[in-house]
Amino acid sequence: MQLFCRYLANYTTVKETEQIDKEVVRDYFTYLVQNSKRLSLNLADIKKSLQMIEDILHIEIDHSLSDFSLSNTSLWNNLK
Q1: For residue 57, how many other CB atoms are within 10 A of its CB?
Q2: Of 44, 41, 43, 1, nearest to 25 (Cα)?
Q3: What would the mean pLDDT of 3-21 be, rounded to a whole number?
Q4: What confidence tier does 44 reach under pLDDT thresholds 50, 70, 90?
Q5: pLDDT digits (tens, 9 = 90+) for 15-31
Q6: How far is CA 63 from CA 11, 51, 57, 66, 74, in A?
Q7: No. of helices (H) and no. of strands (E), the chain
């Protein structure tokens, strides 16, 4: 959650939790995937982060974002 809060503060205009929507979470996911090496995150960390955000904010994340299976080509293409 600390990383998500830093992301919100540094990369978005979000000032209140009510402003956090699926688009913000999707952008955060993209940020995590693109910066996973720099942030020293693995896929399990990213998945846990998204699940925590989903649970705390009661936002249903798109299935494609929470699908870490080998068949999710969009995820694996982003990690290259």
Answers
A1: 16
A2: 1
A3: 94
A4: confident
A5: 998 999 989 998 998 89
A6: 24, 11, 16, 5, 12
A7: 6, 0
Nearest CA to 24 out of 44, 5, 46, 43 is that of 5
pTM value?
Answer: 0.76
Write out the two tokens for 44: 């399990």
Per-chain mean pLDDT for the chain:
83
34 SS3 class: helix
* CA torsion angle 18 55 2 79 (round to 10): -110
Instruction: Round to whole Å and give the CA distance between 67 and 60.
Output: 13
Q: Please identify which residue in the block is written with the tokens 């969009």.
A: 74
